[in-house]
Design a protein that fits this description.
Elements lengths: L1 H11 L3 H24 L4 H20 L21 H13 L7 H28 L7 H7 L4 H50 L4 H11 L5 H16 L3 H12 L2 H16 L3 H60 L1
Helix pairs in contact: 4-7, 5-7, 7-8, 7-12, 8-9, 9-10, 10-11, 11-12
């Protein structure tokens, strides 16, 4: 190093102090340029390229609608998720009826059941063990309730928790799916009327479904989600008949299935969709009226059972009570 410095000083007349100053200056300049590049805004060209990349990513997400909802389990997942395709299909259908249609919905559902069936009992067992060893202090009321449990009572409580954690999500999923079907069944006639009006106003069928889906996003989010999902599938490349039939299968509502068949038949035979929707809307109104009349006619039968169970004991008491009291007095004397 000394020889290099002496050579530079003899050849170019540069002193070691000048070299140190030059090195510090170059380092400071690199630091300034680095900070300015890091803190400066992104170049417009790079920003536009990044936006195009995100747009292509969104397009790939839409194309993911055409993939299967769940793949065959592999590796460790075989011990957690059923390998039988029929059983997985039944679970996928229940999840779709409840509104969960993601690719990992089946995996998440089984992992949640397994987690609740193991975590809940493990947590309770850990709390009991920690309270008995003196590691934590439970509230007085809770300690008085579970502090005297024997091993059999603890085993029974853990068994109940395992059952609740494992079968609870299935019961919740079924009830959630039934509730969603009810909401779709109640909101679909209004959605159909809006689609009919939009088509009569000059919009195409696909554009009418998108418009109605956007309009009903807050008032009827379930049917709006189904309309928009079907249209995204069509835009992603799926055929219209397959998308509409899948929408009917996801909802599980007979009116939606009939709507999909009517629209597909209208497109297949070349009839006017506006006239088809008008006829189907009128038929649906008649069907709703008949169903309301059927429910009203069932009320007397349902009320008779309630009235018989509630009023018959009171009538028997009023009719037979005095006779029983009279005989009791007679035999007492």
């Amino acid at each position: 190093m000394n020889e290099i410095l002496q050579t530079l000083q003899a050849s170019y007349g540069i002193s070691p102090a000048s070299l140190v100053v030059l090195g510090v200056g170059i380092g400071a300049m690199l630091v300034v340029f680095g900070l300015s590049g890091a803190l400066a805004g992104k170049d417009p060209v790079l920003r536009r390229m990044a936006e195009q990349g995100r747009a292509r990513g969104r397009g790939r997400d839409d194309n993911a609608l055409l993939r299967a909802a769940s793949a065959d389990p592999r590796g460790l997942m075989k011990s957690l998720i059923p390998v039988d395709a029929k059983e997985r299909s039944a679970v996928e259908r229940q999840l779709a009826l409840a509104g969960f249609t993601g690719r990992h919905a089946v995996t998440t559902y089984y992992l949640m059941r397994l987690g609740l069936g193991v975590v809940l009992p493990g947590l309770v067992l850990a709390v009991i063990w920690a309270s008995r060893t003196g590691m934590i202090d439970l509230p007085a009321a809770l300690d008085a309730r579970i502090g005297g449990w024997n091993q059999m009572q603890i085993l029974q409580a853990l068994s109940i928790l395992v059952a609740v954690g494992f079968f609870g999500p299935a019961i919740w999923l079924r009830s959630h799916g039934d509730e969603r079907k009810r909401r779709i069944s109640e909101s679909f006639p209004n959605a159909l009327d809006l689609v009919q009006i939009s088509v009569e106003a000059g919009l195409g069928f696909d554009a009418a479904m998108i418009r109605v889906g956007n309009e009903l996003e807050k008032t009827a989010p379930d049917i709006a989600q189904e309309f928009l999902t079907a249209q995204r599938e069509i835009q992603a490349g799926r055929s219209r008949d397959r998308a509409l039939l899948d929408m009917a299968a996801r909802t599980g509502v007979d009116e939606v299935a009939a709507f999909a068949n009517v629209v597909l038949q209208s497109i297949q035979f070349g009839t006017s969709i506006s006239e088809t929707l008008t006829s189907y809307a009128a038929e649906m109104r008649i069907h709703r009226e008949l169903r309301a009349q059927e429910m009203a006619n069932k009320l007397p039968v349902k009320m008779s059972a309630a009235m018989a169970s509630l009023m018959l004991p009171a009538l028997l008491l009023l009719v037979l009570g005095p006779v029983v009291i009279r005989y009791m007095r007679y035999f007492a004397n």
